[in-house]
Amino acid sequence: MLSGLTLAQVALLLAGGVLLDLLLGEARRFHPLVGFGNLANRIERALNRGQGRFARGVLAWALAVLPLAALGALLCFGTGLAAHAVLLYFCLGFRSLRDHNLPIAQALESGDLAQARLLTARIVSRDTASASEADLAKASAESLLENGNDAVFGTLFWFVVAGGGGALLFRLANTLDAMWGYKSTRFLQFGWAAARIDDALNFVPARLTALSYVLLADHRRAAWECWRAQAPGWPSPNAGPVMASGAGALGLALGGSATYDGVAEQRPPLGRGRAAQAGDIARAWKLVRATALLWLGVAALAALLTGALHA
């Protein structure tokens, strides 16, 4: 491990960080990622102007991410193993995916479309004011599948590679991509570095997440075929494999039409089967949960086998 941890320590700390996340959930006050977002906004306002915005974007990314990631790594090195698990907890968004999405399903199932629209607007950037039940179920399912990588497995992957500091670097980079990685006039040049760095960090974990969705699928062949056929047409090189395989795994037809800032966009198709319904939100959450448990089990098994070989 680049982090200097043994496989046994990694497996134990992975389980500890996930357990903390499931028990405590998202920090309600003073969440580090919220504070980081405020810092990133100040850096962006200071640097995203004038000439040389590509270079300014690289500098802004480095100023926002590298000192904090280095500080996280130093804290883990200086304060003991428990710090790795605590830092992993702050970087994970596992329970928050459940807490933000299952209430949408509950609102839809109870017929409270207004509440479902309000809750969905909190997790996606598309317009929800006039969204139908199928639109809202689709938005929630897509968010769960994509964030199964971004908020969960990608974080676990980089924790295995580089401990708490690695998990922190990944989540900070992912947050900057969400803030700056737009092809708008404001961010096309300045946000280029944030988008491309996030693409690079996500390349391997996204494909492992997609593979996990295939292995755990209700419709395994469909998940594989949708991944191979549909992912190349999706705008994001990493969201494509994750969402196409996940949609295929659930037997759902996702993607397609969505409205952003009052403009209807026709996105490439994802998956195949019927339209999403309220109950499919819980199915998507269970697939994400099973993926996390699968890789925790793989880490534990690898630690046991390594220990047995060296006994």
TrEMBL record:
<protein>
    <recommendedName>
        <fullName>Cobalamin biosynthesis protein CobD</fullName>
    </recommendedName>
</protein>
<keyword id="KW-1003">Cell membrane</keyword>
<keyword id="KW-1133">Transmembrane helix</keyword>
<comment type="pathway">
    <text>Cofactor biosynthesis; adenosylcobalamin biosynthesis.</text>
</comment>
<comment type="function">
    <text>Converts cobyric acid to cobinamide by the addition of aminopropanol on the F carboxylic group.</text>
</comment>
<feature type="transmembrane region" description="Helical">
    <location>
        <begin position="6"/>
        <end position="24"/>
    </location>
</feature>
<keyword id="KW-0169">Cobalamin biosynthesis</keyword>
<dbReference type="GO" id="GO:0005886">
    <property type="term" value="C:plasma membrane"/>
</dbReference>
<feature type="transmembrane region" description="Helical">
    <location>
        <begin position="58"/>
        <end position="90"/>
    </location>
</feature>
<dbReference type="GO" id="GO:0015420">
    <property type="term" value="F:ABC-type vitamin B12 transporter activity"/>
</dbReference>
<dbReference type="GO" id="GO:0009236">
    <property type="term" value="P:cobalamin biosynthetic process"/>
</dbReference>
<dbReference type="InterPro" id="IPR004485">
    <property type="entry name" value="Cobalamin_biosynth_CobD/CbiB"/>
</dbReference>
<keyword id="KW-0472">Membrane</keyword>
<dbReference type="Pfam" id="PF03186">
    <property type="entry name" value="CobD_Cbib"/>
</dbReference>
<dbReference type="GO" id="GO:0048472">
    <property type="term" value="F:threonine-phosphate decarboxylase activity"/>
</dbReference>
<feature type="transmembrane region" description="Helical">
    <location>
        <begin position="292"/>
        <end position="310"/>
    </location>
</feature>
<feature type="transmembrane region" description="Helical">
    <location>
        <begin position="151"/>
        <end position="173"/>
    </location>
</feature>
<comment type="similarity">
    <text>Belongs to the CobD/CbiB family.</text>
</comment>
<keyword id="KW-0812">Transmembrane</keyword>
